[in-house]
Amino acid sequence: EYIKNIRAILNKCEKDSIYETAKVYIKKGLCKNSNIEKNVNNANYKKIIIEWFKEVLKEEFSISSRLFLKLRNANQIFLNNKPCFGNETISLEDVIEIDLSFNEKSENIVSTKIELEILYEDKYMLILNKPSNMAIHPSIRHYDNTISNGVKYYFEQINLYRKIRIVNRLDKDTSGIVIFAKNEYIQECLIEQMKRGMFKKEYVAILEGILDKKQGIINVPIDRKEGSIIERCINENGQIAITHYDVIKERNNLSFMHFVLETRKNSSNSCSF
Prior knowledge:
With 273 residues, this protein is of the alpha+beta class. The chain has helices at 2-12, 15-27, 34-41, 45-61, 65-73, 147-157, 184-195, 269-272, and strands at 77-79, 82-83, 96-98, 118-121, 125-130, 165-166, 176-181, 201-208, 215-224, 232-234, 239-251, 254-261.
């Protein structure tokens, strides 16, 4: 309701309406933006509009303040086809547009020709099947042979000059789906979806041995292994990790398993077993 009211006020673009409504919202404790209160006290009508516009972008379109500032500095916010958001006054029937397709530099990653298995691609994202024994992003040990190096080379071949934005990560030895966002806004949206549990992560693996219980739920606390920044172990002081499992097939003392991770953080199939 708060955002609907702000949109209605911005559509009218009446100075008194914006100023008086802002004062009422502050008095009732409904104003979420401290900068609006400061500008009301200074009677700065134009800045109130800017701050409320940012509020609508944040609440309704999930555009962060950091991204808003970046877009503004890159002249990618337009008022009636002209770069804006200095001190412009917005009027009824004005059109505000945001261009997310501007070029970016990605100088920290070198370009390497690597064969990529593309599962899906559109103007917003690139989804790949990452092979095992390949790191996601460059490090001291893997400077130019990661999947991110290959994505940068691929982007250059299609004349797409963007930062390499990884949405989800997999361990070096794990194969599976990896998503790359083609701009910061899409990356933020997809990461927020993961935080809300809208991504369902499923794995298959081969275990040595035959399980007595063919399906079940593993609920154990997992923490970082002492002396390592990567390895995990079961630790009573760790965070709870919940993994659902079932056996697909058994043969020659091997079990072909299916896993579904319920918890978003610290889930580790290898630790659980």
